[in-house]
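Handout, page 2. Input:
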Amino acid sequence: MTTALARKPNKWLVTVSITFGTLMGAIDASIVNVAMPHLRGAVGATLQEITWISTGFVIATVLVMPLTAFLGRQFGQKRVYLACLVLFVLGSALCGMARSLWTLVFFRMLQGFGAGALQPTEQAILRQTFPPEEQGTAMALFGMAVMLGPAIGPTLGGWIVDNYEWPWIFYINVPVGILGFFMVTSFVQEDEQIREANRATAELERKHMDWAGIALMTVGLASLQYFLEEGAADDWFESRSITAVFCVAIVALIGFVWRELTATAPVVNLRLFKDKVFLSGTLISSLMFAMLMTSMFLLPVFMEEMLGFTATQAGMALIPRVLVMMVISPMIGKMYGRVPTRLLVAMGVLFFCAGAWLQRGFTLETTQSGIVGAICMQGVGFACLFVPLTATSLASIPRHLMTDATGLNSLLRQMGGSIGLAVFATLLGRYGVQAKASIAAHLDPTRQPVAERLALLERSGILQGMDPARAHTRAVAMLGGIATRQGMVLAFEKVFLLAGLLFLLVLVLLPFLKTVAPQIGKKIEVHLE
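Output:
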């Protein structure tokens, strides 16, 4: 025991070591989005087929997250992290070499299987490494990696594809991953107390292997994630295949929950949700992540499709929010435990909603500087939300069950983000159609303003050498295009506002956010039931 205490790892070296993997996994979830046109040409895929590059990665990631604790008990937490990091780096290298669609999808799934365990393992290691009074700081460091990844991904991907070949969006992971591997090997140590506490549970799990639970979880989560990723493209329940996948997901997940609550040695510890602190914090975190991912998705689309920004310009416009989160998150971490959690969360909600209110005023004339104020305000909001919610969610979890809790916490955050993207992407399309129809109803050629605009467009065509009939056809088409663009602007405004209004619901949920003071020196107990 004395030797173990003498060799206590340096918490800052541990943090830097394990952050490489989480940051790379978070970046890779979004970095390929800006490279899709290049990838389509390279592998000869249709627009619908190429989405499997993202879908396969996300499905693989969510399948591994809840199994992280089980794998850690069987093989050791550090070994699982290193193995997944190697798998992620190997998958990255193979993705860069792929020259057909389905080999690229397969290698992206390898990446996803590797990335799935990195995030919950880092979260657990940080919770186990930092003392109770510094848990806010630990979660601030973790939150920076989780939140910065989706923000940096499109910017980095846009810069790479603009200046280099598309394989480098994958190759860039290799040297970073190798550095992370050697740092984890050198500086991260497994806690012998936790290993000892998990030994009996691991033996029981091997004796009563929960194959049914693993099968039901795999089918249920894969089906649900496919439904969320591909449902919008097939008009949701208008498609028989999407409806069938949804039904399979619901049945499998209900069976999975029943199995895990009755199994002798469940592969996923769903009993943790009996802890009201963990349950309330995790659910509110999922709602927060839904808003975060929605914002990360909507803003680049608005800037590129409405304002004509390049991928790099859109990414650079988001950098101020990243910088704000980097500055504010450590400050919130220091405040955690000194300022009531509910107050910090309420501040975060209000900052996010204020940013959403500013976003609803975006027009086709909005510039980069006009966007910065709104997104910086939301950056402050996300920092105020993520740190206290993540720290509070895990405050009452015993150290030897920390990886179980972080796996579930990461899974629900990921699912919250997927649900948010699916819902708001669908609403954006529907609001755009409705707004265009509303505007088109006023485009009566007999109305003087409409007639004047048509005449102006026709004269422009004639001056360019067109005959009057062709110029008229072109003018009508251009007027329709203007109506479509204005309709989409109105749709974006409506969605931005709706996101802010829905997020106000978190204020209603605050009374249900249970909090608990950090328990210093809490004894580890082994629970086999």
